[in-house]
Each structure stands twice: as C-alpha cells, then as structure tokens.
C-alpha cells in the first residue's frame, strides 16, 4: 500500500466523522458505495439509503465534543480494497470500528462499516482492563 492510498482512505473515513459532511446528503452519497452495508452498534443492518437518511437527520450531538481516532490499522485486502480498523473516542465513549474501502483513481468509497461500543468498567475503556480468564 502506498502512503498516498493510506492517506486517501484515512481522509475519507475522517470526512464521515465530520458532522457537516454527515448531514450533507450529496457528500455522503459520494463516499458510500452503491452496495454499502453497515452493522450498527445496536446490531441493526443498515443499507445505503437508510444510512444516508439517518445521517441527514443527525443533530450533530453524537460528535459535538472531542473526537479521537487511535489504534489505527489499515490492511490491504486486494489491489484496491482496504480494511481500516480503529478505536474512536467521542468525549468519554469508546467504540471499535471497522471499514472496508474501495479505491478508484478518483475516489474512495465505503462498502462496509461496523461500529461496536466498548464496555466501560468504572469509566475505563475495556481494552485497558486486564481480565484473568483462568478463574
């Protein structure tokens, strides 16, 4: 994967986290592949049209505070298909996210996304808690 491809995918993902982009139907349509599917945090399966409609109705409250991406990993699945995984912090909430992006010469398009809430233990993110599985 070239550094340019990496930046292209990361920039596209960050655009989808921008409240102004999320509420703009034409911007979201340009970023989502026609076959887009999402498994939401609730477990619901979303198609492209339902996702676009839901994002257009967002108040922006989901992302009104500090947004921080961490543990970013980008893997090449094939020549122009990439799996992006990362943790997202919005204020004191953490989620694990995965996105599959298809790249063309002109743009990146998201074909699949899943977001999963991380459980919190006394305000500590789940990945920061050590669990002894031998007991």
Q: Biggest sheet, open or closed, and with what strands and sense?
A: 6 strands, mixed
The radius of gyration is 16 Å
Helical segment count: 4
Instruction: Please trace the helix and strand order, writing H or E for each element.
Output: HHHEEHEEEEEE
Secondary structural class: alpha+beta
Number of strands: 8
CATH architectural category:
Roll
Question: Order of strands side by side in the largest beta sheet?
Answer: 2-1-6-5-4-3
Q: Distance between the terminal alpha carbons, to the nearest Å?
A: 43 Å
Average pLDDT works out at 86
- Strand share of the residues? 35-45%
CATH class: Alpha Beta
How many domains make up the coordinates? Answer: 1
Helix amount, in percent?
25-40%
Global morphology? globular
Low-confidence stretches: 124-135
CATH topology annotation: Nuclear Transport Factor 2, Chain: A
Strand and helix map with partners:
Blueprint lengths: L2 H15 L1 H4 L2 H7 E8 L5 E3 H9 L10 E12 L2 E10 L2 E11 L4 E10 L2 E2 L2 E2 L10
Parallel strand pairs: 1-6
Antiparallel strand pairs: 1-2, 3-4, 4-5, 5-6, 7-8
What key phrases describe this protein's structure?
single chain; 135 residues; alpha+beta; Nuclear Transport Factor 2, Chain: A; six-stranded mixed beta sheet; two-stranded antiparallel ribbon; 4 helices; 8 strands; 26% helix; globular; disordered C terminus
Question: Any overview of this molecule?
Answer:
There is one protein chain. It is globular and about 35 Å long. The strands form two sheets. It has a six-stranded mixed β-sheet. It has four helices and eight strands. The termini are far apart. Helices cover about 25% and strands about 45% of the residues. It is of the alpha+beta class. The chain has helices spanning about 5-15, 20, 25-30, 50-55, and strands at about 30-40, 45, 65-80, 80-90, 95-105, 110-115, 120, 125. Strand 7 and strand 8 form a beta hairpin. The chain has a single domain (about 5-120), classed as Nuclear Transport Factor 2, Chain: A (Roll), CATH 3.10.450. The model is unreliable at about 125-135 (pLDDT under 50).
């Amino acid at each position: 994967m070239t550094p340019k491809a990496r930046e292209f995918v990361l920039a596209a993902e960050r655009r989808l986290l921008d409240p102004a982009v999320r509420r703009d139907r034409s911007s979201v349509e340009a970023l989502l592949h026609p076959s887009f599917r999402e498994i939401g945090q609730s477990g619901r399966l979303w198609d492209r049209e339902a996702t676009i409609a839901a994002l257009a109705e967002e108040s922006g409250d989901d992302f009104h505070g500090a947004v921080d991406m961490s543990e970013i990993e980008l893997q090449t699945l094939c020549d122009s298909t990439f799996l992006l995984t990362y943790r997202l912090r919005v204020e004191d909430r953490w989620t694990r996210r995965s996105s599959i992006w298809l790249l063309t010469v002109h743009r990146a398009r998201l074909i699949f996304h899943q977001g999963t809430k991380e459980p919190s233990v006394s305000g500590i993110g789940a990945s920061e808690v050590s669990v002894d599985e031998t007991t």
